[in-house]
Design brief:
mainly alpha; about 85% helix
Length: about 150
């Protein structure tokens, strides 16, 4: 009986050791999975940051194009192509309005350009060479300089 008890005890010790080894292996796998999940979460957060930064840069590029359109309208006015200049500057209104949504801190200044653009469209439509887009392109340039930092 003592021999059987000893054999049984040895068998239990071996099985317990095997169980402990299996549990340790499982724990290591669980830890590596958790580390992987954490790294994926970090990568995802970094990806979101980069996507937001890219979106801001893309909008700024679009806003730069609007600024260039205003400058082109002013150049058309300078070359006495008033109707073309009026049409071009009028086409910038939607983009400038949208910029007010994107840059809430500059919304008042951007939305304040709407009556100035309307006045330019009217003046240039009548062939008035004295009306200049300088307040519009100066405001846009100032915002671009500030947001581009």
């Amino acid at each position: 009986m003592s021999l059987q008890l000893s054999n049984l005890e040895n068998k239990l010790v071996k099985e317990a050791s095997a169980s402990v080894s299996a549990q340790e292996a499982s724990n290591e796998k669980i830890e590596s999975i958790q580390a992987y999940i954490e790294s994926q979460n970090l990568i995802s957060a970094e990806k979101k940051k980069l996507a937001a930064k890219l979106s801001k840069q893309q909008f700024l590029t679009s806003f730069n194009a609007t600024h260039a359109m205003v400058l082109n309208a002013e150049l058309l006015r300078f070359n006495k192509k008033y109707k073309e200049a009026a049409k071009l500057i009028k086409s910038t209104k939607k983009s400038i309005w949208k910029a007010g949504d994107t840059y809430p801190d500059k919304q008042k200044a951007l939305r304040g350009l709407m009556p100035k653009i309307d006045a330019l469209v009217n003046a240039w439509g009548k062939g008035d060479a004295k009306a200049t887009a300088q307040p519009v392109y100066s405001t846009l340039n100032q915002i671009i300089q500030e947001k581009g930092k």
